[in-house]
Every structure is written in C-alpha cells, then in structure tokens.
Specification:
five-stranded antiparallel β-sheet; extended
C-alpha cells in the first residue's frame, strides 16, 4: 500500500529551484537550476574548476534513465595564484594506501 501511495504522489510531483553562489575573493562560482514535472527532471549546473575552466552540465532524468551533456570552456576565469589548491600537508600526508608487511 505504501509503495502505491508513494508512486501516486510522485507521479504528480512538481518543483522548480535555482541558486547561484559567487565569491570573487575565493574565485568560487557555482550555479544550479532544476525543474521536475511528474516523473521527469531537467536541470543544469555549472562551476569554475581549479584550472579556471567553466564546466556546464545539462541533464535529464526520468523513467527511461539519465542523460547529460557536458561543456567545458577553458580559460573562463584567470585563477589567482593564492587560490590554486596546494598538496595536502595534514595528517597522513604522503602515506601510501598500500603498506609493506
């Protein structure tokens, strides 16, 4: 019974949402937009990766599965040297996951 009720309620589900985050100091740029109509969901998100490339993903999901397209625009943002990720130097830095006995 619970499964039938969940399926009935999900069949008519509808929502839309969108958000954007931008921090010029940290050079963090993210956005996400999604809409659901019944069993089908469509959306897109994008972000600037550590190399300064803008990555945009468009996706669709529903009873027939999930598909996406991905586009990368290289050099969209010139990353300031202070924002380039550095190697981890904290606990377990340099420790190999394989150990000799």
């Amino acid at each position: 019974e619970e499964e039938r009720i969940n399926a009935q309620q999900s069949a008519n589900a509808q929502y839309n949402y969108e958000y954007k985050v931008g921090d010029d100091d940290k050079q963090t740029y993210i956005s996400h937009k999604e809409a659901r109509n019944g069993e089908n969901v469509e959306g897109s998100y994008n972000y600037v990766d550590p190399t300064g490339s803008l990555v945009t993903v468009n996706y669709q999901a529903g009873p027939m599965g999930y598909t996406e397209t991905r586009e990368v625009t290289e050099g969209a943002v010139k990353i300031d040297a202070r924002n380039i990720p550095q190697p981890w130097t904290g606990p377990l830095a340099g420790v190999s996951s394989s150990s000799a006995a």
